[in-house]
Amino acid sequence: xxxxxxxxxxxxxxxxxxxxxxxxxxxxxxxxxxxxxxxxxxxxxxxxxxxxxxxxxxxxxxxxxxxxxxxxxxxxxxxxxxxxxxxxxxxxxxxxxxxxxxxxxxxxxxx
Length: 111
Description:
Elements: H1 2-26, H2 30-64, H3 67-80, H4 88-110
């Protein structure tokens, strides 16, 4: 009797293998196809977003490394810095410089 089960098990195994081959050849289920299509759209959107962000980073790098940006930044820092207060000694030095310039200008006019 066990010998009679061998051909039956072989036929069932062959049917299972052929069924799996047929399902593989017939393609995926419609649900799986929709899922793959949706993932494809998400991938396209992600790639477009990455390209947009890459372009934005390149633009920002160009701005930051430009000479005008450095000059604008230095000017802005100078404007934001509080004005230095002159001490009495610095004020007298500036006044003596102005007096010296006035004396030299007077000498030049006299010549």
